From TrEMBL:
<keyword id="KW-0479">Metal-binding</keyword>
<dbReference type="Pfam" id="PF00264">
    <property type="entry name" value="Tyrosinase"/>
</dbReference>
<dbReference type="GO" id="GO:0046872">
    <property type="term" value="F:metal ion binding"/>
</dbReference>
<keyword id="KW-0503">Monooxygenase</keyword>
<feature type="domain" description="Tyrosinase copper-binding">
    <location>
        <begin position="288"/>
        <end position="305"/>
    </location>
</feature>
<protein>
    <recommendedName>
        <fullName>tyrosinase</fullName>
        <ecNumber>1.14.18.1</ecNumber>
    </recommendedName>
</protein>
<dbReference type="Pfam" id="PF18132">
    <property type="entry name" value="Tyrosinase_C"/>
</dbReference>
<dbReference type="InterPro" id="IPR008922">
    <property type="entry name" value="Di-copper_centre_dom_sf"/>
</dbReference>
<comment type="similarity">
    <text>Belongs to the tyrosinase family.</text>
</comment>
<dbReference type="GO" id="GO:0042438">
    <property type="term" value="P:melanin biosynthetic process"/>
</dbReference>
<dbReference type="InterPro" id="IPR002227">
    <property type="entry name" value="Tyrosinase_Cu-bd"/>
</dbReference>
<keyword id="KW-0186">Copper</keyword>
<dbReference type="GO" id="GO:0004503">
    <property type="term" value="F:tyrosinase activity"/>
</dbReference>
<dbReference type="InterPro" id="IPR050316">
    <property type="entry name" value="Tyrosinase/Hemocyanin"/>
</dbReference>
<keyword id="KW-0560">Oxidoreductase</keyword>
<dbReference type="InterPro" id="IPR041640">
    <property type="entry name" value="Tyrosinase_C"/>
</dbReference>
<keyword id="KW-0470">Melanin biosynthesis</keyword>
Length: 793
């Protein structure tokens, strides 16, 4: 039965039997509800001026309720004054539906053209003095009424009369609202822009948070709205498709729960569970080791950003001053630039956070309140572990992959066998270990501690002549014939390393959610991290405006559907990469724009070079005396599925390795490759990730690069021969599991190929120029002899 039938066929008796709309905060099932008023009311006109009156109205509607409304329809008894002078003159009494900004508003909202948001429901019967049961138009998703509703808005039923002696009399009004399934497709839209407003900038989380510490600063209102919205977001139940739990789960877990596809979860006890997951009926929308990795996550960030923005706007509208609404309008998701600032942002460090609770716009006095910080960790609503049976088929069932089903909250470097207090159950961050992983000092010690391989990798990635093709830049997916040595470096590969550094992947010293693809998105820092990944894509696009995905169709094409992100409420109408190419069309940009555009607002190549060189290049003084430098890199081809998806890492060292310290904490560690995978099949063969299994069957390989230049003193690489001799003495490597145990490289299959290359890099004469990297040639190196052979756990 289509929607028109669902509402048009209703008899008076069936309408009067419909349940009232549940109060805010109560669960709302897939059903019909009413908002009603039985009392009599009327409106009279005395001249040619329109007279209106709000008869009754809905409570403020929350975004997660609005998106589920399939349609609404007004039923009511009414009549007019009972006579008319000239029937040809028309009918001048009617009922209409209006959208009010909030519950305090007394007149309809207006659109960008200043037109009131009102729609005719139905005209009154002409010349009748007896009440008659009438029904209005059906407003479904094909009408612009529903698309005009925003979080916090109110639907009002309005009585209208015009011209002398005309009047409308009403009683027994029922506004029927048809609520659809919470699993129906949700169109993903950018944050709306107001008229004549340019795309707003996503800002550095460090600068944004610092500004917000001054309660007299308007940014403090943004922070307050953001924290309150995140807390509300995280409190929504797992069966709510726009809850934090469900949106985080899009990344991988629970594997049996689809998102935005019009279906509920596949029961865990379904005998065909694995077959249905293999057919794509479940979740696990893995988009790793694929060229679509950056754009899939761009759509993911847009969904998260818009969801938070809607919740912030709802909160703002509940306040009494427009400054709150202006703050909600200004906000965009901040990013964490972990390459320039390799330590956890202050926003995610504190278990408690102080925010503005009330604010006087006249005195600008702020009353502060301290609340639990939802950016420190996500905790399950209800305070039960993620695998608790009370969550039904929405629970996480990791089938032995890790302790995730036992976690109530998310952790970073804290889930350890040695944690006698079991702080990790509630969620905990070991700040020292996390920052140490991000700030691994280079060797030798006289080099600056922040001259990291990570920072150098980003510097190279954004240099225009380094990664010259989008497909190489975007993904770790290995092409059969790479164009040149530089193309082994990728955005996805750098992203993998950061995930591991933030989370930790050693059960002895401490692991965390961010290091495991199946649960990474539950950690709130994930969104700041991936906002920066999207920013790096944006900066690369600024340097390479004409370069894009080369393939059109297939699994990795510019027009390939980015499931499960719908462009509209129609099934199978998904975003593709072409539709996400320009961030400004998605109503955002980044604060980097302030540094890279000229007075006409156009990107200036010299400004862009200076910006990248300053943020990620060597110290500025190095650009004053540019010279050609020996540039060593390690290129790796590996099979990320060699252990059936079990995560492993390759660590590279320059110098002595201490047997008593875990490999990832070694002082002389200069670079690592993390597979960022999870077993694509459970212990009993159950399917966890269809995409991973398909890639493994197809023999798809991956690649990575470790730049070594900033880890080797200048004296050790004055010539290629010097560099070669140095590496023969000092370079070691090892393959390890996330338990910390070494594994022989032969267990990783014949595909593993590690190559040491020497090339040349030359900085420009000044920060405005472009560095040059060229001439890479492989160097003979005994990798078998350099492999560390001791065993440890």
């Amino acid at each position: 039965m289509d929607l028109l039938d669902r509402l048009n066929h209703l008899t008076r008796a069936s309408v009067e039997a419909i349940r009232p709309l549940p109060p805010q905060g109560s669960p709302i099932a897939n059903d019909r509800y009413v908002i009603k008023r039985t009392a009599e009311d009327c409106v009279h006109a005395f001249d040619n001026q329109l007279r209106t009156k709000i008869w009754f109205k809905s409570p403020p509607l929350q975004s997660h309720v609005i998106r589920r409304i399939r349609g609404l329809k007004l039923f009511a008894e009414s009549h007019d004054q009972g006579y008319f002078d000239d029937k040809k003159g028309g009918n001048w009494t009617w009922l209409e539906l209006a959208i009010l900004e909030d519950e305090r508003a007394t007149s309809p909202k207006t659109n960008e053209d200043g037109k009131e948001l009102v729609w005719l429901s139905h005209p009154n019967k002409v010349g009748s003095s007896c009440y008659e049961w009438l029904q209005g138009e059906t407003f479904d998703k094909r009408r612009d009424f529903l698309s005009s509703l925003k979080g916090g808005n109110v639907i009002a039923v309005r009585l209208c009369a015009r011209f002398q002696n005309w009047g409308i009399y009403v009683r027994n009004g029922y506004l029927v609202i048809d609520i659809g399934s919470d699993d129906d497709p949700v169109p993903i839209r950018p944050i709306p822009l107001h008229e004549n407003t340019k795309a707003l900038a996503r800002r550095s989380v460090t600068k944004w948070f610092q500004e917000a510490q001054n309660p007299d600063n308007d940014t403090a209102l943004e922070l307050s709205l953001f924290i309150n919205a995140m807390a509300k977001f995280q409190s929504l139940p797992p069966n709510d498709q726009l809850s934090y739990y469900r949106i985080a789960g899009i990344h991988s877990s629970p594997r049996n729960v689809p998102w935005n596809m019009g279906n509920g979860p596949i029961p865990y006890n379904d005998p065909n569970l694995d077959e249905r997951i293999e057919r794509g009926e479940g979740g696990a929308y893995c988009m790793h080791n694929k060229v679509l990795f950056p754009t899939w996550h761009r759509a993911y960030m847009m969904l998260f950003e818009r969801t938070i923005s809607d919740l912030m706007m709802e909160e703002a509208k509940s306040r009494r001053h427009k400054q709150w609404i202006l703050a909600a309008t200004r906000w965009r998701l901040p990013y964490w630039d972990w390459a320039a600032e390799p330590c956890l942002p202050e926003l995610v460090l504190m278990e408690q956070i102080s925010i503005v609770d009330a604010w006087d716009p006249v005195t600008r006095h702020a009353h502060m309140r301290v609340i639990p910080n939802p950016m420190y960790r996500f905790q399950m609503p209800g305070g039960r572990p993620m695998g608790d049976p009370s969550y039904g088929d929405y629970r996480i069932d990791n089938a032995g992959e890790g302790p995730w089903d036992a976690c109530i909250g998310t952790s970073r470097h804290a889930i350890s066998l040695y944690d006698e207090q079991r702080l990790w159950v509630q969620g905990h961050t070991d700040v020292t270990k996390t920052n140490a992983a991000l700030q691994r000092p280079s060797w030798p010690s006289e080099l600056a501690a922040r001259d990291l391989t990570l920072k150098d990798a980003v510097f190279r990635l954004l240099t225009a002549n380094y990664c010259t093709k989008y497909d190489h830049f975007a993904s770790t997916k290995h092409a059969d014939s790479p164009d040149h040595a530089q193309c082994y470096l990728s955005l996805e590969g750098i992203h993998n390393s950061v995930h591991n550094c933030i989370g930790g992947n050693n059960f002895l010293s401490g692991l965390g959610h961010m290091a495991y693809v199946s649960v990474a998105a539950f950690d709130p820092v994930f969104w700041l991290h991936h906002c920066n990944v999207d920013r790096l894509l944006y900066l690369w696009q600024c340097s390479n405006p004409d370069k894009w995905i080369t393939q059109i169709g297939g699994d990795d094409g510019a027009e390939t559907d980015l499931v499960p992100f719908h462009r509209s409420g129609r099934r199978n109408d998904f975003f593709n990469s072409d539709g996400l190419r320009r961030p400004d069309s998605l109503h955002y940009t980044f604060d980097d724009m302030e540094s890279i555009v000229d007075s006409d607002g156009e990107i200036c190549k010299e400004y862009l070079n200076k910006h990248i060189n300053t943020l990620y290049g060597p110290v500025p003084s190095a650009f004053n005396d540019p010279r050609k430098d020996v540039d060593p890199v390690i290129n790796i081809i590996y099979d990320r599925y060699a252990l059936d998806g079990l995560q492993y890492a390759l660590h590279f060292f320059l110098g002595r390795v201490d047997r008593n310290i875990p490999y990832q904490h070694q002082r002389n560690l200069v670079g690592s490759v993390y597979t960022f995978t999870f077993p694509f099949a459970g212990p009993n063969g159950t399917t966890r990730c269809p995409n991973c299994r398909q890639q493994a069957k197809a023999g798809v390989l991956s690649h990575a690069q470790i730049p070594l230049t900033r880890s080797v003193a200048q004296d050790e690489r004055r010539t290629p021969a010097d560099a070669r001799n140095y590496f023969q003495r000092e370079l070691q490597w090892v393959a390890v599991l996330d338990s910390g145990a070494k594994i022989p490289s032969k267990t990783l299959g014949n595909a593993l190929e590690i190559t040491l290359l020497l090339g040349a890099n030359q900085l420009p004469d000044g920060l405005e120029g472009e560095p040059n990297f060229s001439g890479y040639e492989p160097v003979g190196f005994d990798w078998k002899n350099a492999e560390i052979r001791d065993t440890r756990v």
